[in-house]
UniProtKB/TrEMBL annotation:
It catalyses: 7,8-dihydroneopterin = 6-hydroxymethyl-7,8-dihydropterin + glycolaldehyde. One of its GO terms (molecular function) is dihydroneopterin aldolase activity. It comes from Bradyrhizobium rifense. The keyword Transmembrane helix does not apply. Keywords: Folate biosynthesis, Lyase. Belongs to the DHNA family. Gene3D superfamilies: 3.30.1130.10. This is 7,8-dihydroneopterin aldolase.
Length: 122
């Protein structure tokens, strides 16, 4: 059985992109996380120590996303996945969606971004 902890709409200002102005000025990115884990123990115990702290996940995500300026969202999301799987042994897999609402595209669009899923290898 796999349960899910999620965080949606996490807004982070960062300097990712291939164009000079993206790395100089930066822009807002929005991150959605789905963390796959077994929540049977905390659903019975009601103890924070038996689960994964949302606050700690947000802090880890923010640090991993902002520490380095990447050209590609794929790499930035990969850094977040690596950090989450490294810091939270209870997490079996993570799905990360990174939205880039102000991507420099010569078109009118609602949203653009990437989604990746990474699993812990047994």
């Amino acid at each position: 059985m796999t349960d899910t902890i999620f965080v949606t709409g996490l807004s982070i200002h960062a300097r990712h992109g291939v164009m000079d102005h993206e790395t100089e000025v930066g822009q807002r990115f929005v991150i959605d996380l789905e963390l796959y884990t077994d929540l049977s123990e905390p659903s019975r115990s009601d103890r924070l120590a038996d689960t994964v702290s949302y606050a700690d996940v947000v802090a880890t995500t923010t640090a991993a996303f902002k520490t380095t300026n990447y050209k590609l969202l794929e790499r930035a999301a990969g850094a977040v996945a690596d950090a989450i799987l490294s810091h939270f042994p209870r997490i079996r897999a993570v799905k990360i969606t990174v939205h880039k609402p102000h991507a420099p595209i010569a078109a009118i669009f609602d949203d653009v971004g990437i989604m990746l899923t990474r699993s812990r290898h047994p």
